[in-house]
Amino acid sequence: MxxxxxTGVPVxxxxxxxxxxxxxxxxxxxxxxxxxxxxxxxxxxxxPVALVGRTAERDLVAGLMDALPQRGGALLxxxxxxxxxxxxxxxxxxxxxxxxxxxxxxxxxxxxxxYAVLADVLLPLRHHFGELPPAQRRAVEGCLAxxxxxxxxxxAVCAGALGVLAAAGEAWPLLVLVDDLQWADPSSRxxxxxxxxxxxxxxxxLVMAARSGPEEGGIRESLPHAVLGPLTDDECxxxxxxxxxxxxxxxADRIVRxxxxxxxxxxxxxxxxxxSRAGGAEPWDDSWEAPGPLVxxxxxxxxxxxxxxxxxxxxxxxxxxxxxxxxxxxxxASDGLTTADLDAAEAAGLVRMRDGACELRHPxxxxxxxxxxxxxxxxxxxxxxxxxxxxxxxxxYLAAAAPGPDESVAARLVADARQARRRGAPAAAAPAWxxxxxxxxxxxxxARRLFEAARDAFHGGTTRDAAQxxxxxxxxxxxxxxxxxxxxxxxxxxxxxxxxxxxxxxxVGAARTxxxxxxxxxxxxxxxxxxxxxxxxxxxxxxxxAARCAELTDGADDTQRRHAAVxxxxxxxxxxxxxxxxTALLALLEETRxxxxxxxxxxxxxxxxxxxxxxxxxxxxxxxxTVIEExxxxxxxxxLPYTLLARCEVEMWSRxxxxxxxxxxxxxxxxxxxxxxxxxYALVQLARLDALRGDFDDCHKRVAQYExxxxxxLRGLSLFAGGALGxxxxxxxxxxxxxxxxxxxFAMAEEMGLVNPCLMPWVADLAEACLHTxxxxxxxAVADWLRERESATGLAWPAAAHAxxxxxxxxxxxxxxxxLAVAERVHAGRELGFELARTRLVAGEVLxxxxxxxxxxxxxxxxxxxxxxxxxxxxxxxxxxEVAATGHRTAVHGDEPPxxxxxxxxxxxxxxxxxxxxxxVEAAASLFLSRKTIEAHLTRVYRKLGVRSRSDLxxxxxxxxxxx
Length: 964
Known about the structure:
disordered N terminus, mainly alpha, 65% helix
């Protein structure tokens, strides 16, 4: 083969062919910066490329590239093989010639190697590693095998990778291009997704290309995304004219119809037609058309025309995927072949060199080549490749060569999986465990290894794989204890995948099966079933199984006993004896104080959330603040979305900017983890905030998004969605729609057995809507229900809501004033500012109707001030109209929204971190952002709040109730 190609410098290819597959290497560092990876060649940027069509994609790229000197961003390109994704990447590289460019590319054979693609991105920037916080640097160097670090934290790796790219971009604008993302190893994909969502304030642009399919689904949901569709007929003819074919040629018309707009098929059929005619074929000869799938047909004729030795050598390239030149030489030599046997394939354009590796011209060729090879021959090729390989790659070649179960190869895969775990790459360990299970002769080993695969997949963020592999493990398991462990993981996976009803049934069924054999495992299964039961709206079932869980703790260790007690207390707080649940939660909180570790941290979070349901919001927030701080410090965000949403529940009563910031961050993490249940939870929380603030369109969009994603599978959350829509309608002045939504939500709560009104903050809205629609008796019934709940639970919120209902229902001004006084006493010392303002508003309205404008004026002015401070626009407008109706005309000063209301959710999180005394570097590590992002947000925070120092910021936030 051509020695020039071996140096890694790409050979020029036809522009149209590049549209199908691209022509860059798997790694390319482009000047101006000269820190290239040792042993690599710094390649020149591709020159201007002649894209055909792709106007929308070019506009997206142009917007990203034009903004790069000041800010960054990310873009995902997807489409079928050969559609032109690589060409758009080359166009992006040529578009920004004053930026440093890094190319990386997923390679199918390296998809089993943890952090393989990330290494190609970060190693050229290794001189920036020293700018990372120590914990992040250790994690990054550990995952890249530069230092010996036991199980580096995957999220410290994510934050560290972002820090390295941000530091490089600060020195010079940086463009990172990643092709064939579908073949990037799972660990690298996770890091790239994390980074891509956090580049807005960096001078870094990330453009990735992936085949359409499930592999790019998680990233697609969270990034700007362009799907490359087929070319139009006119654009197809533009491509063919470059190959001297025009509309008068019947064969050319046939090519357009065969291609269906795929540029790769156009180019390959045009080349096949040209070869056929060059060989003397008649114009009507259609022998250039080979049978088979459209994209494969273009190569099958070429493969048949190759010499036998070339076809045999080509199998090694396909089986090895992209073997490095020395490895390929040794493998071919072991079979009596040489690299010269590939010359004919190279001349035919079937193979090419990229950075010292020989590869097929297009990925679609691989199944074509291997499909024409007999199974025995294919297994022999894999064995020969294994013989000249080493390490993990050798193991995977041996696995591919195994015709059936093989314990020796399975054991090697297990060793590789454990090594991946030690490197903190569970997503890479999972497929090794899974392949080991497939090769295990013993069903018991297969079950255990499938379970380990599912566990690593679950912790690595591929929850759907975890659920599927649990199903496979159950088919092999004959050990009831192993079966119970598998069922526990399967139930957890189903919960996070947004199917709590099924999760509850699976967990309870497994618990009942294993209970006669192992009470401890049954206890864990019952305990795990409580959360999906509540998410599915089965409050009574949750109470029953929580009680059974507690009964099985005889002889259990402290951790298991405490977990059972927490689950039972939470279930009581929702659907049982709320007073008893509160007492138990307070006792458990004292028991957990001073304890450390992930399990204790989770228990503290669950206790705090339960206390938020029992009226102990201030105490709950204090505990949740500590837990969130510890999670951030330890780079352990697995439970961060759940914990942030628990704190959001507390802040929703009176601290809306903080609630929005927590819910927004939780939504980002939930989407990143693929946790459908937490995604839905965040959406309905944000929808309620939108409704309260008067952002009606956003409220409806979020509820629609929740319904589209969760599809009614989360009954417990559907209750919140209905409440948000009802409150939105009431705020918008549509009491009929409000009554419809809220009555349906109230009926759903009764059906579910939810007895705690703190989770139904819209109940008083239902009474108001009923009054406005002339249904006084229904409003009275709602007020009576609140009075009964007040008596049964001892909670302040139903007492305050009941007082508001009585204000609305009052028959005289005196009765109105009496119930307003009751409400004021209930609210005293409690963080229910919005609810108190609502009560004052309706009291002012009622008093004015009783012709007591002077008595109405004070509660209305107080209500207006509170609404304005919260930026509750519709309520402030309504209060202003009532104030004016009392004859109060004096301009009011000091009713502007507080400055913190001007901050975006992420700006508020940054301000909160700095206000609590963290440095910029510490805040960056805590919030999983780069230092530059912290600085950019902080600059905007200072400007919006009108402060000039950290001490000024701390005082401003304390005054606004954000800190302290």
